[in-house]
Amino acid sequence: MTSTATLMRAVSRPLPLEGAANVRDLGGYPIAGNPRHATARGAFLRGDDLSALSAQDVASLTAYGLSLDIDVRSARELGEAPDVFENPADADGVRYASVPLLDGMNSAGFEGPLPSSLEEIYRVLLDADAYGLARVMELMAAETGAVLFHCSAGKDRTGVIAMLLLKLADVADEDVVADYAASAGYMEARFRAQRTALAKRGIAAPDFLFASEPETMKRTLIHLARRYGSAEHYLLEAAGVNPASVAIIKNRLQGGL
């Protein structure tokens, strides 16, 4: 269960959208060593499936400053639930980019072999799909408006990207963990519906797939530190992101500190 200590830390709340439950700004988290400063609002947003956004939702996001939607879902997920911003006629000027992460694993849905834990998924994403994560970062660096990155639930692939961004901005581990752990609560109603739909198909998905336990992110942060040293070192050395791009993203997150 989510610890009381984690719940006590302030986390960003979802934007009030009709068609998505877990779209949150990464702004407002304290920056280590700069107690009077926090991560900038209106720069990067994390999110869940955007296929059901209403016209009002799209208008709200564009009014928020959104200019780029990075969709990291698999080909199968895209086919089953096309992103609203994929169609220029519905996008209200927002650009759309598809960067499938762990495409093979996620295209299998719940019908292929399942991983043993979320931690395993996150390690595979970091260790084996650095190219995809680098592509996401380069797209972010090239954008001047707000960038929204999302998967289906807004907690796994999205959670790893959010972890890298927040650690790049020198946000404390405790706040990264709290930001991650909040997702399961915001997605609770949608997860119940998904479980019901899977049960009708005779599929019993393991409970951990619908969770965002603090310990999972804590262990992922330990893996990041032990294997790569830091988020910045991971992006530069393992993923091969252009140093100028890393600097741009860090500067935007830190509000120009």
From TrEMBL:
Membrane-crossing segments per the record: none
Domain called Tyrosine specific protein phosphatases: residue spans: 134-200
Name of the molecule in the record: Tyrosine-protein phosphatase
InterPro entries linked: Prot-tyrosine_phosphatase-like (IPR029021), Tyr/Ser_Pase_IphP-type (IPR026893), Tyr_Pase_AS (IPR016130), Tyr_Pase_dom (IPR000387)
Coiled coil: none
Originating species: Collinsella ihumii
Annotated SUPFAM superfamilies: (Phosphotyrosine protein) phosphatases II
GO molecular function, one term: phosphoprotein phosphatase activity
Family annotation (Pfam families): Y_phosphatase3
Gene3D superfamilies linked to this entry: Protein tyrosine phosphatase superfamily (3.90.190.10)
